[in-house]
Design brief:
Elements (H helix, E strand, L loop, with lengths): L2 E5 L18 H7 L7 E3 L5 E3 L4 H16 L15 H17 L12 E5 L6 H10 L2 E6 L2 H12 L8 E5 L17 E6 L7 H21 L4 H12 E2 L2 E2 L7 H4 L4 H13 L6 E8 L5 H11 L3 E9 L2 E9 L3 H11 L3
Parallel strand pairs: 1-11, 4-5, 4-7, 5-6, 7-10
Antiparallel strand pairs: 2-3, 8-9, 10-12, 11-12
Helix pairs in contact: 1-2, 3-4, 6-7, 9-10
Amino acid sequence: MAQKHKQKAPSKGLHPRNPHRARYDFDKLIQSCPELSPFVAKNPYGDLSVNFSDPEAVKVLNRALLSHFYSVSYWDIPAGFLCPPIPGRADYLHYIADLLADSNGGKIPKGKTIKGIDIGAGANCVYPIIGHRVYGWQFVAADIDPVSIKSARFIVESNPSLKGAIQCRLQKNPDHIFAGMINDSDLFDFTMCNPPFHASLEEAMAGSARKVKNLAANSEKKGGRKQDFQRDKTSNAMKGNKPVLNFGGQKAELWCPGGEAAFIKRMINQSVEKSSQCFWFTTLVSKKDNLSLIYKQLKKAGAVEVKTIDMAQGQKLTRIVAWTFLTPEQQGVWRNTRWVN
């Protein structure tokens, strides 16, 4: 039977090592990325901010954050593709570092001998970028979309600090998650994944509409005029009378048949086939109600150890579920051959 461990998020929100815990210093961000300047203005409290309902503003803010904190000289994504919030992406990686450290006597394994695979890396390639720049890890960025892989590969090739550290692999069979991405000679210290959240396009659109409504409510609550936000909403968050996520997203990035639960169940089943080639398999789980099904599936799959790590990002609570098929003895061999640095 698998051992289960629960790790709670720090009470103050983002991970203690996350450099994005403090408020954005827009003056410094503009110094690192001057093109951010036109998107920055004072909010009702007199503080500098950007309009988070504007997809272009969010994208340029990401570009500034990646430049300022991670020395990324070039970053861009095609129109309409997922533009993830950087602080939350960094959090997942810092918790993975803690997960590895817990299996390594408290010491975080760092450097190019440590290898991770990002399942569904998207056009933005943010997880591999941050993971390599912070911990020196090597990555495979995997995705089923050719445009995403082309974009991710161009980002890597355009940054000298990333060249040779991130390999982009196109998954040609959408039914496969690890097959074809983890080759026979590969060993990965961890996998990571932000699964499609919704079960259908309609559900994704409804979620987008709720997000737009919440942005309006928050703007009004903080002293903004509702009619001003309505104008922003129409121009920036609506298209063809349909809501558009300010963070973007294509079909495979936002939804799949059965939603998050079905995708993770499939991931668990397929991880058995690669059980000896990876130390920790991990995934984000946004819906708490899915945990019971996930634990049952992991028990059925024969996971030796299961860990659940809570993450707090403002008012949003999510979690990482991690599992391994390696026995304590096998973990020791893995540690001694790969994590000695």
